[in-house]
Write a structure and sequence with these properties.
Length: 227
């Protein structure tokens, strides 16, 4: 199964770009960790260069990545220019990228543009985290933090952004995205075996049974069937 390294830009002493009290370091930590959780749900390993608001140098980030072998390294950032002067998403690879990083960058870019961000394109840059990492590496700038429209998109479409990024990254490693299960509906093709421990016509009796099972250490719940 694939193994990924996620890098959330800035943190600790370095807030990254700031606008009206909003910090890039917080935005990328929050959304990146949510994407990591979505991806882990599919059995893919995701390691992270930071998991809290801590200061991590660029060489610590690449050093972290260098200690392991990863399929991809993905760095999360938000852009800034002059207040309200620029907007949109851009995704970077290192100079003269290989097919893998180029393909991942394109998938990420397309996924975010589909949610309404302006397409600034896939670009190349001589950034430390792209140059000094071993795995195919990309760096995504998820909208401009100094653009109100981009921030509104970032906030109002948070869940869609998380899903879109997870989907794009999973597709790149050959894993189909699976919707989170909100019920006990099995994924198509999958069979679930449910264990019963009694049927009752009086709800109180069902609740007693649940209590008994829970006391015995079993995870129990009442399911209602209408005859
Ligand atoms: Zn940044």
């Amino acid at each position: 199964m694939a193994r990924l390294c996620f890098d959330y830009g800035h943190g600790g002493n370095d807030s990254g770009a700031c606008y009206n009290g909003r910090k890039e370091s917080n935005d990328v930590l929050s959304i990146g960790r949510a994407v990591a959780a979505e991806i882990r749900r599919h059995g893919v390993t995701v390691d992270e260069t930071r998991t809290s608001d801590s200061t991590v140098s660029l060489s610590e980030r690449s050093g972290f990545e260098n200690r392991n072998t990863y399929d991809y390294f993905i760095s999360f950032h938000r852009n800034a220019f002059k207040p309200e002067q620029a907007k949109g998403v851009e995704t970077y690879t290192y100079l003269n990228p290989g097919a893998k990083s180029k393909s991942l960058a394109q998938r990420i870019q397309t996924a975010l543009v589909a949610l309404g961000f302006t397409d600034r394109g896939v670009k190349e840059a001589n950034y430390h985290v792209l140059r000094e990492t071993k795995a195919p590496a990309v760096l995504v700038e998820i909208g401009f933090i100094d653009n109100t429209g981009d921030n509104n998109l970032f906030d109002s479409k948070r869940n869609e952004i998380i899903k879109a990024l997870a989907k794009a990254i999973l597709a790149q490693v050959g894993v189909d995205y699976i919707e989170p299960s909100v019920s006990t509906q099995p994924a198509s093709g999958q069979t679930l075996y449910r264990v019963m421990a009694g049927s009752y016509s009086v709800r109180e009796n069902a609740e007693k049974q649940v209590k008994k099972l829970k006391a015995a250490g079993f995870d129990a719940t009442i399911m209602i069937f209408n005859k």
